Amino acid sequence: MFLTLQDPRARVKGSRDALGVQPIWTAFARQVIANLTTVTDSLRGFTVLLLGRYFGDRLIREGKIEEADVVDAFLRMEQLCGYARCLGPSDDEASLGRILGIERIMGRINRRSGSVRIGISAEAAILSDQKSYGLWGLFSVAARASKLLPDGPVGLSPDARAFVEAHYLPPLDPALTELMNLIAGEGTVSLEPLDPVLAHLRDVVAVRPSAAERDFYRRYLCDGTGSDQLPPGRQRTFRRLLQTHSALRRSTSRADFVSIRKAAQQQDPELARRIGDIIALESLLAPCDALFAFLQARHGQPVAEVAATLNGSWGSSVPNLDPDAFEEILGRIDRVVGADITGQMARVHGSLLTGQYRTAIEHLLEWNRIVMMNRSSSPWVRMDAGQKLRVRYRGLERGLPTAEAVKSLWRYTYFVDTLKALVVQTSEPSGRNAS
């Protein structure tokens, strides 16, 4: 099982993920999507990443910067591309992906000061911590998993380098010297009139992808062709089934997963099994997430009253729970989070299945206690000696979903919505799905 690829924005902190489920759903998601994270949903984000890595390597080879300076060079390239995209004629987030740092970029453009500084100072940065929360920090892991980057901070894979040189260098050639000078050191670029560097970058990063680009990014990002973490063709099969059994411009639903699993049984039974594992997992995680949020807004309320409310809303059994399917995945959950949490999950599952809501609440609170203990922190919600809830971290007032709503409840992304965004961006301009 592939468990090493982390989502850079989803690393668990003490004040989030009360049940510690992020590593669990990530592990199951990696059985169908090997390379993406929840934040890597921008085709042009990957374009800028490749350009920044390419020029950093080239500047080192030409003796213009040291390897220690390669991150600074990348950050300057990211800034230039951000301004170029925002100054483009019709930058379309749905077609090209979002722009990290857009608020600062647009704020500086709208000041109409005539020029902006490119550099690594706070004045020039486009994010409060551009290295961590820009493309270098958020996209590098996924690009490396897609085999677009080698290990280490410098350079591209041979295929990615060849692609950059064939498709991106020719339109940049008239401004190449000025571009490399700006990347290598501090400088300013004109906004009115538009600096030639920005004008030529705009023709690369602020336009809809060409047919060659769509093919390249579809293969490496959407289909995970370069990744060796899944059997050959599995992610491509999943991508195609996603296109034909799910609306690409909305979040994936439980019904989508059920439909995709049914279709996969004819094409890749092992893929169908892995999708079934995700369904079995989410059938527990989704109602547990809803229930814990409900508990967070019930400070001081007797547990018996909360259990009675659950019984009135959800009835004698929570929908979709499948004891046999859940039993099949317990061993894999254990390998991710250990026996203590796995045991509580199993007990919550059994209690919700049989409508024993007081018992389910007790085990859910113990589940949270173990997660917080492992983080050297205190539980968010506990039960006092008087059998009342004591809430440490209060949540927003949220009503329980109805039993009917629980039937379609789906909380976690499993990186599927990221894949959908990239499928849209690598599709034909007419909107027809890529094949």
Secondary structural class: mainly alpha
Number of H- or I-type helical stretches: 21
- What is the end-to-end distance? 28 Å
* Morphology call: elongated
Helix content: 55-70%
The tally of beta strands, per DSSP, is 4
- The pLDDT mean sits at 92
Strand order of the largest sheet: 1-2
Biggest sheet descriptor: 2 strands, antiparallel
Low-confidence stretches: 9-14, 431-435
Summarize this structure briefly.
With 435 residues, this protein is mainly alpha-helical. It is built from 21 helices and four strands.
Please provide a written account of the structure.
With 435 residues, this protein is mainly α. The chain is 56% helix and 3% strand. Residues 9-14 and 431-435 have low confidence and may be disordered.
What key attributes describe this structure?
single chain, 435 residues, two-stranded antiparallel ribbon, 21 helices, 4 strands, 3% strand, disordered C terminus
In terms of topology, how is this protein built?
Elements: H1 22-29, H2 43-61, H3 70-86, H4 93-96, H5 102-110, E1 115-118, H6 130-133, H7 135-145, H8 158-167, H9 169-172, H10 176-184, E2 187-190, H11 196-205, H12 211-222, H13 234-245, H14 254-267, H15 269-296, H16 303-314, H17 323-337, H18 339-353, H19 357-374, E3 381-383, E4 389-391, H20 403-406, H21 416-425
Helix pairs in contact: 2-3, 2-7, 3-5, 3-11, 12-21, 13-14, 14-15, 15-17, 17-18, 18-19
